[in-house]
Amino acid sequence: NTVPAATENDVLGEPPTLHSCHPGRSESCPKHQPGPRTVRRIPGDGTEIDQPCRSHERDLRIQHMEHLRLAVGLMALLSVAAFFLTVRLFRRASPVLLDLVAVMVLALIGVYLRTVWGQLWVVNWIPLPSVIVLSNWFPIFLAILSAVLWLRMAARPFLRRAPIQLALLVSAACSVLYVIPRSPPACRNEWIEPEFPVTFRICRQTSDPPVTCSAAAAATLLAALGIDANEAEMARLCLTRGGTTWLGMYHGLSIKLMGTGLKAKFFEGTLAQLAALSADRPVLLCCELSETIAAMVPEYREADGWIPGVSHTVVCFGEKNGTFFIGDPSQPSLERWDHRRMIDLWTGTGLTIAPLSDKSPVAPRGVR
Asked: Which of 82, 161, 298, 320 is the residue whose CA sits 20 to 30 A from 271?
């Protein structure tokens, strides 16, 4: 029951037919050269030509890397500034004070790791596509620590101090470059056709090993908005390596939504709030099977393939009569979750798509 995305006989439910270069418009792109792509047949709306263009896809790749390069450059600049500012402030400090500052920096790194590192709520503070780099404060902390150690070892020869400085520099660089994989995992392009009462297709997770659930879920969400996307493209834009971080997925969605009048937005709430929100548009959900629930309900692991302690991304299309309709990229068909299953698996957080203004388009309702 899977078909290749975007063939001449594709039948979607009720999503709008938006041009991939100019969402909200169905005419050809006046700026770019159209590529040889697809015809989509929309029930009750005739046939619309969807012509994603090669130039636009190239532009997306350029924007994707430009945002990351600018963010890396900014973090490097801030780190250098933090080093010299620390040297200037503490150049006359006593060894005891320098030791105290070093301990405080190490404590801050521990607090940062526990409360900020990789947390999705950070996008409320830094609502930029490159938040995955800009919220990585290891280089700044390590620059401050490096400056303290440089002053603390001032009496030693340069060659004795240099190895420690070099080690800290390499650690700072690795902490930034680690989130930018050189190549995403290989993916096929498989979709599940709409299943009543949901009107949207579901992108399958096809990588081996299966690490692209977030990329496939993001492609499903974008397709519901009428924006052309697939698993392989989103794996690249979401910076998927051995999995996809939530900040990586935010990056991919933000890049794809540029110029659409829409934005990705952090969501945290109750089941009732999720039901109300998903009545307007699909929502990406962060799910995880805890060890406790896995022991109480072994069917999650044995029958459905959930791995305790491993995060998983699904799409919530809406709720009807107490049942949530879920697009799980790892499953062969539409899922129906009751409240008990939602409580067991959903972490209470996710990403939704919100308009930049009242005039921006929104996704149509997905449950009939």
From this structure: 298
Cα(133)–Cα(272) distance, rounded to whole angstroms? 34
Helices marked H in the chain — which ranges?
A: 54-90, 95-115, 131-134, 138-152, 158-177, 213-224, 231-237, 246-256, 271-278, 291-296, 299-302, 339-345
Q: Position 174: which residue type?
A: C
Element (H, E) at 351: strand 346-355
Count of C-beta atoms within a 10 Å radius of residue 108: 15
The whole-angstrom separation of Cα 133 and Cα 251 is 10
How would you list the strands of the sheet with 283-288, edge to edge?
Answer: 262-268, 346-355, 283-288, 311-320, 323-327, 335-337
- Sign of the Cα pseudo-torsion (175, 179, 183, 188, in order): positive
Which residue from 74, 15, 81, 87 is spatially nearest to 48, judged by alpha carbons? 15
Each residue's pLDDT tens digit, 243-288: 888 999 999 999 999 888 899 999 999 999 999 999 888 999 999 9
Here the tokens at position 48 are: 């619309």
